[in-house]
Amino acid sequence: MDLSMSEIKAFNATVKCGNYTRAAADLGVSQPAITVQIRKLEARFDSALFERVNNGVRLTATGQALYKITRQYPDLELSIKALAQPGAASQPVVRVATASPLIFMPLFAAFYQHYPDATLNITSGTTNECREMLHEREVDIGLYPAAKEEKGISRLSYHSHCLTAVVPHNHELANLPTVSVQQLADYPLIYSRSNAYTQYLVDKAFTGCDVEPKHHIHMDSRYDTCEAVVYGLGIGFALENDVRPDPRYRMVRVAESDEEVVEHVVWLKSRSAMPGIRNFVDVAIQTRSSALSG
């Protein structure tokens, strides 16, 4: 079977954009041209690759199987371009998803020092969201706690810190070296999104001690959580280096969650040779010693 790059590009663009019209605009071609390429592909497989849904299309089972392969083609093109045009590697475009922007700001700065003409596209999200974006190749690098080894994934330890309770500066718990979940259960608590890694650690600490906490507020942002704490709405939670120190609140370690959480630089092994990814990881290796000691 001799697939053409035009067919593959049309197929990948349709998957990314969700319909033929947007795929055509993305590739700078006409909508009928996209339709022709998709029909060629479907004829080769003797099977539909897309099914129609409201305002667009979605992959069939055959289409999903094909996309697991074709989504690697853009990497192939970029690798060939880097080989043919070595100078282009000095101006990489790197897409990054991070669950902890504050922790990785020094890494971003170091990357720009090494590659001042580079472009960093940075997206913030929960750990699970960052992991999903990495697996779907929506980003090149993930910056989050990769607690378990995964097949096909490379990870580099970059920073470690612990879960803390965020309490007002004048709170009776503010000056303690650690605070227990039994103590925290006596106060109103502010929770994060259920799919956030911080909330996973909070739930684990309380469940492990069979303590039922009182939470009456849920916040999407750790920064909003800190403001809510300042205004007396309750006690929040954050990993200790995920928010900036502020005289209006104190961050007290949670005794039952004393295991260090390691933040990782994460990428797909199959993409290790991609110029932008390789450059970013090289800088991370150079800078991580100070980050780990910090």
Automatic annotation (TrEMBL):
Superkingdom of origin: Bacteria
- Enumerate the InterPro entries for this protein: LysR_HTH_N (IPR000847), LysR_subst-bd (IPR005119), WH-like_DNA-bd_sf (IPR036388), WH_DNA-bd_sf (IPR036390)
Q: Where is the HTH lysR-type domain?
A: 1-60
The UniProt entry, under SUPFAM superfamilies, shows:
Periplasmic binding protein-like II, Winged helix' DNA-binding domain
* Signal peptide as annotated in the record: none
Q: Name one GO cellular component term.
A: protein-DNA complex
Q: What keywords does the record list, in alphabetical order? A: DNA-binding, Transcription, Transcription regulation
**MF GO annotations:** DNA binding; DNA-binding transcription factor activity
Family from the record: Belongs to the LysR transcriptional regulatory family.
Listed PANTHER family: HTH-TYPE TRANSCRIPTIONAL REGULATOR CYNR, TRANSCRIPTIONAL DUAL REGULATOR HCAR-RELATED
Protein name, entry field: LysR family transcriptional regulator
Lineage, top ranks: Bacteria, Pseudomonadati, Pseudomonadota, Gammaproteobacteria, Oceanospirillales
